[in-house]
Amino acid sequence: MRPRLKVLWGTVALIAAFTTAQAHPADASRIETGVRADRNPIGNPGPRLEDPPEYVSRYGVLQATITVERKLVQVGNQMLYALTYNGRYMPPTLRVRPGDVIQLKMRNNVDEDTNLHLHGLHVSPRPPADDIFIAIKYGETYDYTYTLPRSQRPGTYWYHSHAHGLSAGQVAGGESGIIIVDDLREYLPPDLKDITEHVVALKDDQVDGDAIKTSPLSIGAATNRTVNGQQNPFIAIRPGETQLWRLANIGANIYYKLHLAGFRFHVIAQDGHPVHKVYSADSLVIAAGARYDVLVQAGRPGVAQLETLPYNTGSAGNQFPQANLATVVTKGKPVKPAAIPSTFGPYEDLSHAKIADRKTIAYTENAAGTEFFINGKMFDPNRIDFTSRLNTVEEWTVQNNTDEQHSFHVHTNQFQLMSINGTPVNPANGWYDTVTVPVRGSVVVRTKFLDFTGRTVLHCHILNHENMGMMAVLDIVPPGAPISTPSTHIPSGHGHSGHTPSGHTPSGHGHSSHG
C-alpha cells in the first residue's frame, strides 16, 4: 500500500486540493498525501518523509495541467525562488498504467523557452508526444498527448525540461518530477503485494541569494541534497517490515552513491524495467536520470542514515563528498520478515538477435571542459547523425575517450547493456535507459526499435555536458526506407525553430498558443 494516502474525487474535493496544495488538478484525478510532518522521533529536526501528491489516471486517461512558474517555495530548510511545476519544487507524481493515454497541458509562465520530456517511457518521439525539438515560449500553452503501449514496463520514470541549451538550469532549478507506471507489484509474491511504498526522489540545489542557482552551473560546486524536496526527512519502518522504495536521481548533473548501514538494496527494477533476477547491493551508484526500484527490509529496532558516499568521476571530473540524505527509524511492533523473491520480471535477451547494424558513439571534450562532442561533432538539431530502421536490432559501442565519467541515455527505446569494458553483463539484469560509461572505457548496448518512427536523440545525461554539445540526433525510419548518411541536414522548417514543426499541429493536439 502507499503510505497513508487520501483519495479525493469529485469537483469539491479537487477544489479543496487546489486550495491547499497550490496545484492544478482540475482536470486530473488527485491523491493528496495525508502524512503529518511530524518531527523526527530521534530528536533531529527533519520532518517525516512526505511522498509527493499524485495525479492518477482514470478509465485509461490521465489529464492534467502543468504550469511552469518561478515561485518562492520551501526547498529543504530554506525558502527559495525555484522553477516549479504547479507551484511545487517537488511536483505531483504522474501515476499511470500500461496502455493509458497521458494528456498534459503545459503552460509556460517563465521568460525562457521550455518543453517536456517523459524520461524512459516508450512513447512516440513525434508531436504532440515526446518531441523534444519544440520550444514552448513565455506565455504559450502546448497540449501533449502520449499513448503508452500495453507492453510498457512497470516501474519508475520521470518528467523534466529538455529545452536545448537550457535543460541543465531548468532541471537544477526544479523542473522535474516522478512518473510511476503501475503493475510492478504484480510480480511480487502474495505476502508483499500490499507493502508500503515510498518515492525517494533525489534533487540537489545550489543557492544564489534567495534563489536556486540556474546559471552558470558548476557541477563541482557545493550543493544541497534533498529527498522529495525535504531536508534529512525520517522514514519509519517496523522491525522485519519490507518496503518498496523508488530511488530516482532527478537532478541535473551530480552522482549519488547510496548506502544505508545495516540494510541491503534488493533491486527489482532498473530504469523502469523489471529485472528477471533480483540482486542485492550494499550501495548503488545512481547517475543523473537513473532509477532503481528496490525492496528494503528492516532488522532490529534502531536508527540508520541513508547517505550518499564519496564518489569520484575521474581526474577531469568531480569529487562528490559524503552527505546525509534521510534518517531511517526502525521501531514499533515487529512483523515476520517476508522472503525476498529471487526471480521477478520476464526474461528478455538480445544476445542471439540478428544484428542489422553496428554503430560507434565516441565521447570527447576539449581541454577546458567547455565543449563536448559525439563523433567529433557538437549537437545540431538540424542534422541527422544516426539512422536506424524500425523492427531491427542494432549493437552500439559507446566509447568514452575522456578522463571523466559520462552517462549514455537514448530516448524512445530502452537498451540491453551487453558489456562494460569488455566484461559481459548478466542478461537477466541488463535493461536500462541510462548507464555510466567508464573513464577511457566503453559499453556495448543492443536495442530493438519498436512501434515508433521519427527523430529522437541520444546524449550524455549530465545535463551540463548535453547543453555544451554532447547530444546527437537519431532518426528511426520505416522498414525499407532509405538510410540517411551521417551529418544529413534537415530542410528548413523541420528543425528546432522555436515552434511546433510544420505538418504536425492538428487542432487540440500539440497546438502551441498564447494564453
Number of helical segments?
A: 3
Oligomer: single chain
Share of helix, binned: under 10%
The major β-sheet equals:
7 strands, mixed
| Spatial gap, N to C terminus | 40 Å
The low-confidence parts are: 3-39, 492-515
- The largest sheet has its strands arranged as 1-2-3-6-11-10-8
The number of distinct β-strands equals 41
Please describe what this structure looks like.
The protein is mostly beta strands and 515 residues long. Helix content is 5%, strand content 43%. The chain is built from 3 helices and 41 strands. It is globular and about 65 Å long.
Condensed summary:
By secondary structure, the protein is mainly beta. The protein has three helices and 41 strands. The strands form nine sheets. It has a seven-stranded mixed beta sheet with strand order 1-2-3-6-11-10-8. Strands 27, 28, 31, 33, 34, 35 and 37 form a seven-stranded mixed beta sheet that branches.
What key phrases describe this protein's structure?
single chain, 515 residues, mainly beta, 41 strands, 5% helix, disordered C terminus
Layout of secondary structure:
Layout: E1 5-8, H1 10-21, E2 29-33, E3 54-56, E4 61-75, E5 78-85, E6 93-96, E7 101-108, E8 117-119, E9 140-147, E10 155-160, H2 167-173, E11 176-181, E12 197-205, E13 207-208, E14 211-212, E15 224-227, E16 234-237, E17 242-249, E18 256-260, E19 265-270, E20 273-281, E21 283-286, E22 291-297, E23 302-308, E24 311-312, E25 319-320, E26 323-330, E27 355-365, E28 372-374, E29 383-384, E30 386-389, E31 393-400, E32 406-410, E33 415-420, E34 423-424, E35 431-432, E36 434-437, E37 442-448, E38 454-459, H3 463-467, E39 471-477, E40 488-489, E41 512-514
Parallel strand pairs: 3-6, 4-7, 6-11, 12-17, 16-26, 27-31, 30-39
Antiparallel strand pairs: 1-2, 2-3, 4-5, 7-9, 8-10, 9-41, 10-11, 12-15, 13-14, 17-22, 18-21, 18-23, 19-20, 19-22, 23-26, 24-25, 27-28, 29-40, 31-37, 32-36, 32-38, 33-34, 33-35, 33-37, 38-39
